[in-house]
Amino acid sequence: MAEARFEQVTEEGTEELAELASAIWHEYWPALIGAAQTDYMVGQFQSLPAIERDMREHAYEYWFIHAGDDDRVVGYTGGHVEPETNRFFISKIYLRADERGKHFASAVIRFYEELCRDRGLQAMYLTVNKGNELGIRAYEGNGFTTIDAVETDIGSGFIMDDYIMEKRV
């Protein structure tokens, strides 16, 4: 079981976060969704302006994920509370290529379970690309169940084809 430490991203860390996001996305996603959609989605959802907008306008919180053994940054995660549903929406769990398969995703889920309990939330949920078998297996292995499927038009002719997965806490 991977040990991890979570460092909340402040305004001073947003540039580092955007650089990390771009590196991880450009390594992982082109094989699944193509280079053009990867570039578009990084610009729309993972860039410095997008991160700053989400923090300012949508109460997003982000954390760097550090390995417990040597404190290296292995990835990042983020999301926000949805008061209307009493759930936490996990928008992002992304790990560097050489850190996948080391159970850091499980550490992230444990982090969110504790966060939800501390905040009195009933559940957490996320969306996962239907072709992201690695992610789906990790979420199912950590107690998430698929509750819906959705295709979302994100503009410029691109569609996100996702499952919605939820875990009650």
UniProtKB/TrEMBL annotation:
Record bears the keyword Transferase: yes
| Keywords of the record | Transferase
Report the GO molecular function annotations: acyltransferase activity, transferring groups other than amino-acyl groups
Protein's name in the database:
GNAT family N-acetyltransferase
One Pfam family assigned to this protein is Acetyltransf_1
Q: Where's the N-acetyltransferase domain?
A: 8-169
